[in-house]
């Protein structure tokens, strides 16, 4: 993934620096308002990453030691790690092979008395069917948190992913579409929860440093610290870049969808093995992955031969239960997770990819896979 950054972002960052206000301040507030408006949600709280967004989301959902949280193993490891950070146990559910996402069917067998939350991921930008998972979890008092790290610009039943969730988390790392260098956002529906998340990201302070400064130049307003918080703030420099990037999001999604469709048609029968929109939504093709056919060489060999042809593809999405910290953690077999993590690869796809470059990728793939 190559981020689509330009002169406008450079200027916005420079203006933030020149303004003298570089820590969390007016630009963060403006970015939060713009992001909430884009999603159509009442509250957006900017943070330092999606990992910290997920950690705050879990705390906000009341998850702590002794609790279990159902997550897909097929995800960037931060999804499982966030659960571990709050002292709870990640319980790995399998995913659907077609989308790489959890479904109500894969989550249901893992719910226990201890399940406090489910983290549903929009993997690679493919919208997860949150409605179905909420119908399962809601009546049991289990909170569904949406890990929409990859999902900015994807739609679930016509609405931006995450906008229907009680709590959702987004990433602005350069591997995702919209980037601020590092950065994240938590969104939620509830005003009290949003206020608590704002305090938690800033050391548990009752009044933010920016508000105190705005109110009285620092005098008169004395803050209190009613619970232990964190320093999970975003800077105004990052938010300035984010505001520009948010304006470019529709163009980014359109271009990626166009390039993905072109891959599909050029790949012929292989194109049917490319990740596609599910029935319930449209993706942003954050990760444009291809599942290798059964008779294909092993993936390492395919990647090596692609590299020799000048094509830098990547291995498919990782599986946390195959990594050292979670090796003994899987309670059920995860066949689709293991299939996708072992046999898929991610094709080059970025805003400035040319058709000529894309033709090179397709030519190399067809030569290797027949
Ligand atoms: C990238 C990613 C994260 C972590 O995002 P950061 O902003 O880098 O912390 C979490 N979950 C998923 C699904 C991701 O793809």
From TrEMBL:
The keyword Protease does not apply. The active site is at residue 176. Its EC number is 2.6.1.102. Keywords: Aminotransferase, Pyridoxal phosphate, Transferase. It holds the Pfam family DegT_DnrJ_EryC1. InterPro entries: DegT/StrS_aminotransferase, PyrdxlP-dep_Trfase, PyrdxlP-dep_Trfase_major, PyrdxlP-dep_Trfase_small. The modification N6-(pyridoxal phosphate)lysine is found at residue 176. It is an enzyme of class 2 (transferase). Its cofactor is pyridoxal 5'-phosphate. GO terms for molecular function: GDP-4-dehydro-6-deoxy-D-mannose-4-aminotransferase activity; pyridoxal phosphate binding. One of its GO terms (biological process) is polysaccharide biosynthetic process. Belongs to the DegT/DnrJ/EryC1 family. L-glutamine:2-deoxy-scyllo-inosose/scyllo-inosose aminotransferase subfamily. This is Perosamine synthetase.
């Amino acid at each position: 993934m190559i981020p689509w950054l330009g002169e406008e972002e450079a200027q916005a960052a420079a203006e933030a620096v020149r303004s003298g206000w570089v820590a969390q301040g007016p630009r963060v507030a403006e970015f939060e308002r713009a992001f909430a408006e884009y999603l159509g949600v009442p509250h957006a709280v900017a943070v330092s990453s999606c990992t910290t967004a997920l950690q705050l989301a879990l705390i906000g959902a009341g998850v702590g030691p002794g609790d279990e949280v159902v997550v897909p193993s097929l995800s960037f490891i931060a999804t499982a790690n966030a659960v571990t950070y709050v002292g709870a146990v990640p319980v790995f559910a399998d995913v659907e092979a077609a989308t790489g996402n959890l479904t109500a069917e894969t989550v249901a067998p893992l719910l226990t008395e201890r399940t406090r939350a489910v983290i549903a991921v929009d993997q690679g930008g493919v919208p997860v069917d949150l409605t179905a998972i909420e119908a399962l979890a809601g009546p049991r008092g289990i909170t569904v948190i949406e890990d929409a790290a990859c999902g900015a610009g994807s739609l679930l039943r016509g609405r931006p992913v995450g906008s229907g969730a009680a709590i959702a988390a987004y990433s602005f790392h350069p591997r995702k579409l919209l980037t601020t260098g590092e950065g994240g956002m938590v969104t939620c529906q509830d005003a009290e929860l949003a206020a608590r998340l704002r305090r938690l990201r800033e050391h548990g302070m009752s009044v933010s440093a920016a508000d105190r400064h705005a109110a009285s130049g620092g005098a008169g307003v004395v803050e209190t610290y009613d619970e232990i918080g964190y320093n999970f703030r975003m800077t105004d420099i990052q938010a300035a870049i984010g505001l520009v990037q948010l304006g470019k999001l529709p163009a980014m999604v359109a271009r990626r969808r166009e390039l993905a469709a072109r891959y599909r048609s050029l790949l012929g029968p292989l194109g049917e093995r490319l990740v596609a929109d599910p029935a319930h939504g449209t993706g942003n093709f954050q990760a444009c992955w291809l599942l290798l056919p059964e008779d294909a060489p092993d993936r390492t060999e395919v990647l090596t031969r692609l590299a020799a042809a000048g094509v830098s593809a990547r291995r498919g999405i990782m599986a946390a239960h195959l990594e050292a910290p979670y090796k003994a953690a899987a309670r059920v077999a995860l066949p689709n997770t293991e299939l996708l993590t072992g046999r898929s690869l991610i094709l080059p796809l970025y805003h400035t990819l040319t058709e000529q470059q894309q033709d090179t990728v397709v030519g190399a793939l067809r030569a290797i896979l027949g």
